[in-house]
Amino acid sequence: MNLKTTNSNNKRQRGFSLVEVLIALVIMSIGMLGIAGLYVQSLQAGRTSMLRHHAVTLAGDVADRIRANPTAGAAYVAAGANNNCVAAGTDCNPAEMAGNDVLLWNQQAGNTLPGGNVVITFTPPDAAANTPPIYQIDVRWTEPEGAQNFTITIPVLGV
Questions:
Q1: In 3D, which of 148, 119, 135, 149 has the Cα closest to residue 63?
Q2: Nearest-CA neighbor of 54 among 125, 136, 156, 140?
Q3: Would you tell me how many other CB atoms lie within 10 Å of the CB of residue 151?
Q4: Dihedral in degrees, nearest 10, Cα atoms 106, 111, 150, 42
Q5: pTM for this one?
Q6: Strand (E) positions, 35-145?
Q7: What span, in angstroms and rounded, lies between the C-alpha atoms of 85 and 32?
Q8: What is the pLDDT of residues 80-109, one digit of tens each?
Q9: Mean pLDDT within 39-48
Q10: In the predicted model, what is the mean pLDDT of residues 40-45?
Q11: In the chain, what are the helix, strand and coil shares in percent, each to the nearest 5?
C-alpha cells in the first residue's frame, strides 16, 4: 500500500499574493496623495508670503515718500497724475509731487500684486489737541482666498 500523504507544512509560499500587492498599492497611493496635498499647500503659503512681502515693502515706500513730502497733506488722497516730477531739472510743488507719487504707487501695486492698489486716508492736524497729521496707508490686493490688505498708520511730525 502506497499512501501519499501531503503535509501542508512542507510547502513554502514564495512571493506575494495579489491581495497583498493591492493593499500595499492602496496604502502607498493614500500616502502620495497626502504628500501632494502638503506640496500644494506649501506653494500657496509661499505665494501668499511673497505677496505680503510686496505689500509691506510698498507700504514702507509710501510712508517714506510721505515723510519726504510732509506739506502735501490731502493731496495724497487725490487721484494720481503724471506730473513728470522725476525728470531731471523739473521743479514740482508738494501737491504735484504727491500726485506723481500716488500714480507711481498704484502702478507698482498693479505690477507686483494681483488686483493691487494703494488707498491713502488723511487726517489733518488738530491744533487744539496738539496732534500731527496722520496718514493711513492701505495696500489692497486679491488672492484666490479673497481680498487681502495691509494697513499702516503713520503720524508725520515736523510739519
A1: 135
A2: 140
A3: 13
A4: 170
A5: 0.71
A6: 117-123, 134-143
A7: 56
A8: 888 777 766 678 888 888 888 888 888 898
A9: 89
A10: 89
A11: 50, 20, 35
